Amino acid sequence: MKKLFLVLLLPSFLIIGACTQEPDMKELKQKAAKIHDAVLTIDTHCDTPMRLVRGDFDVSKYHDSKDRNSGKIDLPRMKQGGLDAEFFAVFLGQGERTKEGIKKVRKQTSDIFYAIHKMCQDHSDLVELALTPDDAYRIEKTGKRAAFIGIENGYPIGKDLSYVKKYYDRGARYITLCHTSNNDICDSSTDKKGAEHNGLSEFGRKVVQEMNRLGMIVDVSHISDESFYDVIEISKAPVIASHSCTRALCDNPRNLTDEMIKKLAQKGGVLQICFFSGYVKTLEPNPKRKKAFDELKKKYGEWSTVKDDSIREKMREEYHSIMREYPQKLATVQDLVDHIDHVVKLVGVDYVGIGTDFDGGGGLDGCYDVSEMANVTLELVKRGYTEDEIRKIWGGNLMRVFKKVIEVAERI
Question: Could you report the per-residue pLDDT of 104-133, keeping only the tens digit for each?
């Protein structure tokens, strides 16, 4: 009789279990949505200005992410995804370090600055240029998006230190010291030729000092390990990695080792976890995709060596065509938050943030574009992070660093 009673009772437990499980997820989603709306959310890196400067992308209009020309960020999707502030990158691919090369890249730099400022002027009801941490909090209250500016690659500085201030005066609040190749400032983590300066150059040391003097954040993403340690030693202010991950979870030279993360934290800095799948996890081999990209490279050469703008445009089109024909399986939001967990366990919750690299390769399964940013908050809530911890991850840590950089400048 007892066995019969248990058998009859079992379906009831299953029904009750099924009913109680669903409200739990509903409750988590409601909690996450409330937190996401309450905290200041900041992304420290996107390459959307590359679209702005071409003049064929209306950032004020909503774009369907399935559309090949949609990009990952526009102002309506920022609102939809609850992203309050974005660092729009003035990205410069590394070119020749000659008088002609520097002249050309400075023109490109000026054009991108102009495009970002024009975005803010043309759509002043939706977005406003931000220069300080206080600006971000003030703009958030108006319901508009805050647009910060960062420079990705110190290449346009050349060897003229005065350009650091010139770019600061135009609104840049961080500089990623280099990109995929060495420049006059420092060595890159991915230059195939290897080290040139064995870290920062003598001029690079002056650049870091000048950035400290101005109150400009030094960004260590893309730079070599030796360059990183030089920056940590020289900088009087905390620094950031605007879009990198942890090397312990994904062995890529663009990511930071545990030792580097510890040094960054000791300096008071912050690692902004990147959404580029190849930095989040080791991706499954895709031979057809690799072959297509190898053939593209054979056809045109390295991106940085292509000087003709019309050829660069063809190269860009063929690149995106390959991306569509041979899609790479993306890392997930869960994979991304694993990196956040790793940093938190290693050095604490005060030293990690978000830097998507949207429109520069960033994009995850579950957070493919800016409209899905709240899914990161949901995953953090699922893992037991509190509202205060999530507030730090989404912007509080970055704002702390930013304020400290300004304080250091005021003392110099």
Answer: 999 999 999 999 999 999 999 999 999 999
Q: For the domain that residue 347 is a member of, what is the CATH number?
A: 3.20.20.140
Confidence class of residue 39 from pLDDT cuts 50, 70 and 90?
very high
CA distance 381 to 31: 8
Q: What is the dihedral of CA 303, 308, 312, 314, to 10 degrees?
A: -140
State the Cα torsion 102-91-192-260 to the nearest 10°.
Answer: 120
Question: Which residues, in sequence order, are CB contacts of 41 under 8 Å at separation 6+?
Answer: 82, 83, 84, 85, 354, 373, 394, 395
- Whether residue 353 contacts residue 393, with contact meaning beta carbons closer than 8 Å, is answered with yes
Residue 20 counted as domain residue: no
- In this structure, are 253 and 323 located in the same domain? no
Residues 272 and 307 in one domain: no
Please tell me the predicted confidence (pLDDT) of residue 324: 76
**Which of 293, 328, 363 represents a domain boundary (last residue)?**
328
**CA-CA distance, 70 to 224, in Å (whole number)?**
33
Decide if pLDDT at 17 tops 70. Answer: no
CA distance 51 to 57: 6
Greater confidence (293 vs 40) lies with 40
Token readout for 192 is 């195939």
CA distance 402 to 398: 6
Same domain (yes/no): 226, 317: no
- Average pLDDT over the chain reads 92
The pTM of the full predicted model, rounded to 2 decimals, is 0.90
Structural domain that includes position 312: 285-328
Buried b (16+ CB within 10 A) or exposed e, 135-146: bbbebbeeebbb
